[in-house]
Amino acid sequence: MEHRPQGVITRGTTGINRLRRSDRWLVHDAEVRAALADAPDPLVVDLGYGALPVTTFELAARLRTVRADIRVVGLEIDPARVVPGRDGVSFARGGFELAGLRPVLVRAFNVLRQYPEAAVHEAWATMQAALAPGGLIVDGTCDELGRRCAWILLDSTGPRTLTLAWDPFALARPSDIAERLPKALIHRNIPGERVHALLAAADRAWAEAAPLAPFGPRVRWRDALERLRDHGVPARSYRHRMRDCVLSVPWETAMPAN
């Protein structure tokens, strides 16, 4: 059965190591690791990899540290961007319908950012319908060098978490990442919206942690995270020490008010 690609051709900008922060998070996230480990067929789709597939190869290499037999397929709606496969990674034409594949993990980075906000939920639903049982989707956005990243983790029922990650030396304050929020949230950073309140709380905690600034932004952010939790923000804690500044919260903490 032929599957007609769903979506439109986007700019296709990409770059080496642009998605390294989200890749590191995927490798260490317990829910993602469990989904990959438990999958009868560990198929991963990299949707909308852009003009060059470098980040698809990087994703495959990093995820194979979790499970060596992972298969990665890069999908692009633009047939001119579909390239020959190598190193166990293949490429095909496809869009939100995922080319009829049934992946356990979908990474769609810097794709929906170029769509109107009203298109987000339909795109999510189309990808969710194609997931393998227990499958997950990462819908994310980052800047051109990958220093500021934000993504939503979804399962077949809907969004589960929002994660913000940035180079410790790239931001003056946490709310500077607002310009890279995923499409579902980027227009919601206004008073009265949960994501606005979350970023304001992160800025306050960052300011309170200012006495630790001489020890570097990583130490300061770890202290700010503890302050956020003390103030009632359900920020996730990680057992391993992160090289990035990371703020991950349940979706209910950031979801649109309506």
Primary descriptors:
single chain; 258 residues; alpha/beta; 7 helices; 28% helix; globular
In short:
This protein has 258 residues and is α/β, with parallel strands linked by helices.
What would you call the quaternary organization? single chain
Q: Which segments are poorly predicted (pLDDT under 50) over 5 or more consecutive residues?
A: none
Q: With helices defined by DSSP (H or I, 4 residues minimum), what is the helix count?
A: 7
**Overall SS class:** alpha/beta
Largest sheet: 8 strands, mixed
Q: Assign an overall shape.
A: globular
Q: Report the portion of residues in β strands.
A: 15-25%
Terminal CA distance reads 39 Å
Q: Give the fraction of residues assigned to helices.
A: 25-40%
What is the mean pLDDT? 93
SSE string: HHEHEEEHEEEHHHE
Number of beta strands? 8
Q: Radius of gyration from the CA trace?
A: 18 Å
**Main sheet: which strands, in order across?**
3-2-1-4-5-6-7-8
Tell me what you see in this structure.
It is a single chain. This protein has 258 residues and is α/β, with parallel strands linked by helices. It is built from seven helices and eight strands, in the order ααβαβββαβββαααβ. Strand 1, helix 3 and strand 2 form a beta-alpha-beta unit. The chain is globular.
